């Protein structure tokens, strides 16, 4: 039962809409300093005439995701490090597990044009890159790029630190999407409290949906 629940949690990336957990918007606003409010899907348009926008990653920039599938309100994440043209590390909340904070996890540009219009993001419950390709608007650049510390605030909803990055040298597992390899690969040290949360989270997905996701994930590896 435990592994079934973990599989269900690992194959779905569904940011929660509940106000009782930390959302991606206040987290990204605090960490980046970009003073935009409202749902993530509105950030790109709101940034016009207030912040510069573009399609090249920079440290401190906010990556704005388009609404897609279950991600009906979009998503925002903050670039913490640029590894190369196709790889960045990001910090974001409410992605792999409702309310969870993930710091310095990998995001890959998988777009045909190399313009970061389609990305894949590290999925902590499965400890691998997410199988889903996620469309984005682009990057919003703050006036003074700086990564700010996030301190849990009950007023923003419950949160947990699901994972943080450590570096593994000479990792044999390589992703094919980036233009070139980098010397280091991020690995995550998972918080077991998050796994207990995943075990307790019910899922309404059918067995057919699970099998389809497993096959799709296998084809991408």
Automatic annotation (TrEMBL):
Looking at the record, the residues that make up the Peptidase C51 domain are 1-120
Q: Which InterPro entries match?
A: CHAP_dom, Papain-like_cys_pep_sf
Signal peptide (from-to): 1-18
User: Coiled-coil region(s) at which residues?
Assistant: none
Alphabetized, the UniProt keywords read: Signal
Can the keyword Endoplasmic reticulum be found in this entry's annotation?
no
Give one Pfam family: CHAP
The protein, known as: CHAP domain containing protein
